[in-house]
Amino acid sequence: MRILNIILLFISFNVYTQASVKSSTNITTNSDTSTVIALNNQAFNARLTNPGLTISNGNKALKLAVKLEYTNGIAESYRVIGIGKSYKNSIDGAIENYLNSLTYFKKAGNLQGEAKVFNNIGNLYRDIDSYKSLENFNKSLKIAKKLNIKDLQAGLYLNIGTANQKLKHYSKALSYYKLSLSMFNSLGNKVGVIQSHQNLGVLYLNLRDYESAKKNLEEGLAKAKEEKLINSAAAINLTLSSIHIAQKQFDEAESTIKEGLMFTRILKDEKLEYNYILTSYELENKRKNYFKALQYLQQAYKQDSARYANNISDKISLLETQHMQLEKQKESELIIAKQKYSQILFLASSIVALLAFFVIFLLVKNVKKSAQTNKELTRLNQEVSKQKDDLDRTNQNLEELIEIRTMDLKNKNKKLSEYSSHLSHQIRSPVATLKGLMLLENDNLIDKEEFVEQMGKCINDLDDKIININENLNNPNRSSLINED
Fold first, then answer.
1. CA-CA 20 to 30 A from 169: which of 34, 175, 249, 339?
2. Cβ distance 72 to 108 under 8 Å?
3. Contact between residue 81 and residue 62 where contact means Cβ atoms under 8 Å apart
4. Cross-referenced InterPro entries, in alphabetical order (predicted)?
5. Each residue of 322-339: pLDDT tens digit?
6. Cβ contact 215:234 at 8 Å
7. Residues 6+ away with beta carbon under 8 Å from 476
8. Which helix (H) or strand (E) segment is 133 a member of?
């Protein structure tokens, strides 16, 4: 009886120890998970003021989430990194991270996460392809309504309004903006309120209702400065400067541009700075300071504006296709690995079963049949070797096929990228000259005959370059589209 009590005590102690260890492990895991969530929240909140910090904290969260195998944490980390990349105007990096995020949210069955990513992808397309932008916003809105996520719905109404404004559907845009502003006010979302006022200001500018535009923009600017959102303040100042120019308030426009450029240079936003240079050109041109206007125009065209061209839409679509192909390739490799493992397991089991059978057979039968048994084993080994050789040949063929297809895709991507860069480089010079001639003609600074002659030269130059580009593109013997002028 005493021995039985000792055994029971020992078992109870072991159970208690294991439970304590398990509880301690859960506490550590929950703590680490909270760290991932906190890092992602910090990264997201820094997106408007410091996108570099967004990317840095997102990468820290991703590293920890991967270590913990925390699927939702991995997905959200990829999403915030994509947001940071988009604010840094890195389109390739943004779409790659968004697609990775979408994959992990689907794996986790997280519909809310999927809705956020569709919204982010829609924002990426916003300045490039309004129809694709609306397609992704509507996917997100459908989920947001289903899950009753008010904050996301408000943001989506704002984004859908912007897409409609790009399509010049101004009445629809105004309706969505007002709905968004109302929801953000009721939710107490200050950032959303600022963005709503900013977008309403742009819309009223397009409608040439300058007073309403000013009212919304100035209210948004005051709130942006109060919240220290220099990204929003810089963008609002850009729109305000355009209104001042339209109303011939040139001193106010100059002051607004200076303040906006100060914010823009803190952000190191090349795209926004490029827009400010064009606005400065517009201001000096209206002032009839043509020499200074020409300096701004030359400065603008020195910058690499090709990254903001319409063909970015095709590039994003290509990256989406490439990502899907890589996902399918990974699935194929996983299936092949599972098949290989199953074959090896089946082969090993068969060999073990056969060996066991022959061991029993040898024990039952007498020693005289040992020679026959050895012969049978040799035959089986040869068959196994043959099957292994066949499997190796099959794997080698599959690897070669994958390598060929990957190389073909890279070549196609390279040729498309070269064509895009070459087209932008070749066409921009004569187009810039044509724009300069038009400005001179509008201000009567060039003779008609010289204007016609110079226009003819530009058109002939443009025609020659287009013919040259088409010949290079349609030449199947060329591995590269770029040639020297």
1. 249
2. yes
3. yes
4. HisK_dim/P_sf, TPR-like_helical_dom_sf, TPR_rpt
5. 566 566 556 646 765 676
6. no
7. none
8. helix 130-147
| pTM (2 d.p.) | 0.53
What are the phi and psi torsion angles at 247 (to 5°)?
A: -95, 5
The whole-angstrom separation of Cα 154 and Cα 189 is 10
Q: Report the distance separating Cα 420 and Cα 92, nearest Å.
A: 15
DSSP string, 234-279: HHHHHHHHHHHHHTT-HHHHHHHHHHHHHHHHHHT-HHHHHHHHHH
| pLDDT of residue 21 exceeding 70 | no
Q: 146, 115 in Cβ contact below 8 A?
A: no
Residue 16 has a CB neighbour count (10 Å cut-off) of: 10
Phi, psi of 373 (to 5 degrees): -65, -45
Burial class (CB in 10 A: 0-12, 13-18, 19+), 135: middle
Question: How far is 245 from 254, CA to CA, in rounded Å?
Answer: 9
Cα separation, 214 vs 211, in Å, equals 5
Residue 276 has pLDDT above 70, yes or no: yes
Residues 278-307, mean pLDDT to the nearest whole number: 80
Q: Can you tell me the distance from the alpha carbon of 333 to that of 139, in angstroms, rounded to the nearest whole number?
A: 31
Q: What is the rounded CA–CA span in Å between residue 157 and residue 173?
A: 9
pLDDT at 11: 45
Query: Which structure tokens are listed for 123?
Result: 């924002």
- Report the C-alpha gap between 161 and 130 in whole angstroms: 11
The DSSP annotation for 201-222 comes to: HHHHHHTT-HHHHHHHHHHHHH
The residues near 2 (Cβ < 8 Å, ≥ 6 apart) are: none
Tokens 């299936």 locate to 335
Rounded to whole angstroms, the Cα distance separating 17 from 110 reads: 36
CA distance 401 to 235: 50
End-to-end Cα separation, the chain, in angstroms: 101
Q: Are 158 and 195 in contact (CB under 8 A)?
A: yes
Residue reference for tokens 């206007």? 293
For each of the domains in the chain, give its residue range(s) and CATH number, in order of start. Answer: 199-304 (1.25.40.10), 339-473 (no CATH)
Residue 363 class from Cβ within 10 Å (0-12 exposed, 13-18 middle, 19+ buried)? exposed
